Amino acid sequence: MTEHDVTASADAVERPKASVKHLNAAGPAAKKVAGVRRNPSVVGFEETAPHWLRVVAGWSWRTLVVVAAVALVFWATSKVLFVFIAVFVALVFTAVLRPLVRALSRIMPRGLATAISLVLSLLSVAGVFTYVGLSVAGQWQNLAEQFNDGIATIFQFLEDSPLHLRVTTEDVEAWLATGQQWLEENSSEVAGRVWTGAGSVGLVFSALALATFCTVFFLTRGEEMWHWFLNQLPLRVRETWLSGGDVAWYTFSGYTRGTVIVAAADGALALIILLLLGVPLAAPLAVLVFIGAFIPLIGAPLAMLVAMIVALATNGVVNAILVGVGIALIGQFEGHVLTPLVMGKQVSLHPVAVALSVTAGTIVAGILGAVIAVPLVAVAWAVFSRLRHADPPTDFDHLEDDDTDDEDTEDRQTAQLAVDGRPDPSRS
Known about the structure:
Number of helices: 14
Strand content: under 5%
Largest sheet: none
Structural class: mainly alpha
Oligomer: single chain
Number of strands: 0
Helix content: over 70%
Order of helices and strands: HHHHHHHHHHHHHH
């Protein structure tokens, strides 16, 4: 080894020692910066920003990510709304028909049980609408005469009221003439809307056909399809998805079957009340009450309003009031007896949550949103409640009682010290 190599080796050994010595002299801050390259402005902000601001900032960006994910789901759903509606209706059909299919499959093949269940359901719906159509056709002539007399009675009632609202036949004819003129002036626009409505009717039947097709497979091989989906997931998350899916289907099917049972009971009770009060078109109005039961909060009042208008126009004010009272009693019976008995704890949502869900669903998607908002929120809450790890609840009343007892004890101790003439140690 030459003298030059020995000198280079000595310099190489001395340089790390000098670097370490320099870092030790510079202090811990220099070590931290030398060990990890960090932005000095970020380091200063983290050191100076208060803890609550850092916590709020962390929650803020996480909340923004969640909101963005939810908005993305809504946007994607709006692009395939036809498919979403068809699948949702198929799940409703599956939830309603599954008990019947399960009962029939004990004595026959499951495919045959599914076919018989679908045919029976279609015949039931067709029979109800046929009965409604025949009842309307049979009462239409008498109803027209009663309706004209009822309208005249209403006009006379408004004229005799303290407001003295006078509506004559000439006013009605003028309104009809104005409406006819508007139709003539906007005939092209009306025709376009009718054509659009016809297209919408075609989409409705297409969605029902797709929903029926999916229902057949959901009823016959639904469990196999669900297990296949679970097997496509990583092994570490399958148990979580299985637990969440089970509680989601339990909640959705319970809500759907419960709603159908409650709606059928409301319609039957409304039919009995309307027949007893002699209100015409009792069957169509009962079907309207049945459909209104599927829209929480707003469906039943709207059906009651229509029934009261028909009763008012045909049988007078007293009969309309009796109809309103009868349907209101049905609503109370549904809310306090029927719904808790049928649904139990399958759908445990607070009325405030139901109201907010229906309102938000109506704003976002109209009537469709009002119908599907509550079951979706109920399913989401059920899954969240099953998968979360919540701490045990706190008995706040007990804590408040303990605080009150402590304050009473301190007051008694202070009073005793004052009686003894000794100073209060807490004030020294």
